[in-house]
């Protein structure tokens, strides 16, 4: 049975994960197997639990103990539940909890690219995307629009950061993902070579004179395709575009030259899904 603990001391060391550790400290780069992430809102937490993630502790508004937090408490036996009123929790965390519940969870051991791509026909590759809202939105689109997996280059934002996981509506726990390299020098050419060795054609989403339309029949007919999307401001690096098999654009109208990367991902994923 979970232990319900009323917060009377904001300096309690067990609350550090919710209040005083940065995202980088939670990730624990020195010992990744001991890393923690914070899931926010009942729906996101439930999806993480359904995917097999291990809870460490819960933080919730007192009113949720017998409300929307009841199911979570029953699913997390022996996990401490720290509770207080909304004002105290906002003072502790520095922000108002969107849905009144946080859960500290163990980070998973990420699979290799080769293991993740076994049997996959469509994968999304995210290059240097650092905005957590965009990461969350892209994961949601990837899960909904028939991508088999998501690969992130070493400089991408952490998909398990609190905001990315919340914006994704928990789909970061539903679609397989991993990093394609641990160091900046592992991308682009080493990473593109890995994908090509796995039988993938690579499609760089970018504007250029050599671009083919996203609905090009040859592109859509590829048996295995990796769709590569770039950073919010500059897009894909020139070396990435040069190393890909295709350069692909979404035809625009009304003088608009491009879409936000999250919106572009949704169009590309739907159009280029495997048939």
UniProtKB/TrEMBL annotation:
Lineage: superkingdom? Bacteria
Keyword check for Lipoprotein: no
Q: Which UniProt keywords apply?
A: Methyltransferase, Transferase
GO molecular function annotations of the record = RNA binding; RNA methyltransferase activity
All residue ranges annotated as the tRNA/rRNA methyltransferase SpoU type domain in the record: 123-269
Listed under GO biological process in this entry are: methylation; RNA processing
Identify one Pfam family in the record.
Answer: SpoU_methylase
Q: What is this protein called?
A: RNA methyltransferase
**Lineage of the native species?**
Bacteria, Bacillati, Bacillota, Clostridia, Eubacteriales
């Amino acid at each position: 049975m979970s232990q319900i603990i009323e917060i009377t001391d904001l300096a309690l060391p067990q609350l550090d994960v919710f209040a005083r550790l940065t995202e980088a400290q939670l990730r624990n780069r020195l010992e990744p197997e001991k890393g923690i992430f914070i899931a926010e809102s009942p729906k996101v937490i439930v999806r993480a639990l359904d995917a097999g993630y291990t809870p460490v502790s819960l933080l919730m508004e007192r009113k949720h103990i017998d409300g929307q937090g009841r199911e979570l408490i029953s699913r997390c036996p022996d996990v401490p539940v720290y509770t207080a009123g909304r004002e105290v929790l906002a003072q502790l965390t520095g922000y108002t909890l969107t849905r009144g519940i946080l859960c500290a969870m163990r980070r998973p051991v990420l699979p290799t690219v080769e293991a993740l791509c076994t049997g996959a026909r469509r994968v999304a590759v995210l290059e240097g995307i650092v905005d957590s809202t965009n990461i969350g939105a892209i994961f949601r689109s990837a899960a909904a629009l028939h991508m088999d997996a998501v690969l992130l280059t070493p400089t991408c934002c952490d998909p398990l950061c609190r905001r990315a996981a919340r914006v994704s509506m928990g789909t970061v726990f539903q679609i397989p993902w991993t990093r394609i390299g641990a160091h900046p020098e592992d991308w682009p050419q080493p990473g593109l070579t890995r994908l090509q060795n796995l039988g993938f054609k690579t499609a760089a989403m970018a504007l250029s004179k050599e671009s083919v339309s996203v609905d090009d029949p040859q592109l859509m007919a590829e048996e295995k395709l990796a769709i590569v999307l770039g950073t919010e401001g500059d897009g894909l690096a020139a070396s990435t575009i040069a190393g890909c098999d295709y350069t692909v654009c979404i035809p625009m109208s009304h003088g608009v030259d491009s879409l936000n990367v999250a919106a572009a991902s949704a169009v590309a994923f739907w159009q280029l899904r495997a048939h």
